[in-house]
């Protein structure tokens, strides 16, 4: 499905890979449309095929989902294998949560939960690394999470941001592949749905209650939104904002 800008696009479309029937590209999709990209939305879990080349696309984004990158489902394995396409063609690729974990697995790193069962469900501190600060001036101090597994840093990848519970929060592999453990794409409506449908997870170790999710958004989301717009420029247009 192609989602197009009302006045036409300035760029080739971005491939958007979603994992549930009612999932959306959220704020990432809104921002890409505003920046002049159409969206080519596909859901392999529902039978959509992924392209054999990204020559007709500006890049790709694989979003999160309730499944694990370790699951044996055919579509999970197929998506992980498909990552050969952006990597070999050196096209921009962004993996968010599950998408970042799929990239890590493709590159030979492990995806796993902590031995103590601690999750990140809610708002947690983020610290940029020196390399991250060289790439971007404004990293958010708090970011939103909804996961119970993390990943090892793939061999050859650059760690851009870290956290206390799951140390690998943002990374870059090569020139054009990026992974984020956290979620910057949620609109307010999306967060409210996640809080309602994910309430059963709030009893898990280290998880925050729904009220904290929504209260945290009012405090921390403005900085996260500014960062996301700048980050998308870096991923898809190579616009590097050097630290002051």
TrEMBL record:
This is Glutamine amidotransferase. Pfam families: GATase. Residues 54-187 form the Glutamine amidotransferase domain. It comes from the Bacteria. Keywords: Glutamine amidotransferase. InterPro entries: ChyE-like, Class_I_gatase-like, GATASE. The keyword Glycoprotein does not apply. The lineage of its organism: Bacteria, Pseudomonadati, Pseudomonadota, Alphaproteobacteria, Hyphomicrobiales.
């Amino acid at each position: 499905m192609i989602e197009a800008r009302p006045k036409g696009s300035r760029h080739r479309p971005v491939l958007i890979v979603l994992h549930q029937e009612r999932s959306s590209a959220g704020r990432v999709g809104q921002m890409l449309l505003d920046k002049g990209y159409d969206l080519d939305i596909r859901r392999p879990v529902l039978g959509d095929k992924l392209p054999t080349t990204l020559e007709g696309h500006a890049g790709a984004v694989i979003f999160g989902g309730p499944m694990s990158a370790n699951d044996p489902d055919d579509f999970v394995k197929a998506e992980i294998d498909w990552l050969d396409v952006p990597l070999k063609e050196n096209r921009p690729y962004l993996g968010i949560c599950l998408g970042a974990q799929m990239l890590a697995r493709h590159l030979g790193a492990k995806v796993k939960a902590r031995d103590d069962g601690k999750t990140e469900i809610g708002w947690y501190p983020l610290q940029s690394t020196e390399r991250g600060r060289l790439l971007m001036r404004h990293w958010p101090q708090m970011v939103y999470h909804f996961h119970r597994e993390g990943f090892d840093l793939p061999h050859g990848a650059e760690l851009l941001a870290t956290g206390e519970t799951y140390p690998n929060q943002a990374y870059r592999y090569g020139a054009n592949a990026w992974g984020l453990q956290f979620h910057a794409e949620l609109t307010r409506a999306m967060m409210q749905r996640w809080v309602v449908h994910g309430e059963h997870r709030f009893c898990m170790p280290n998880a925050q209650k729904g009220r904290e999710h929504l209260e945290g958004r009012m405090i921390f989301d403005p900085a996260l939104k500014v960062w996301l717009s700048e980050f998308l420029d870096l991923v898809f247009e190579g616009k590097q904002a050097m630290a002051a």
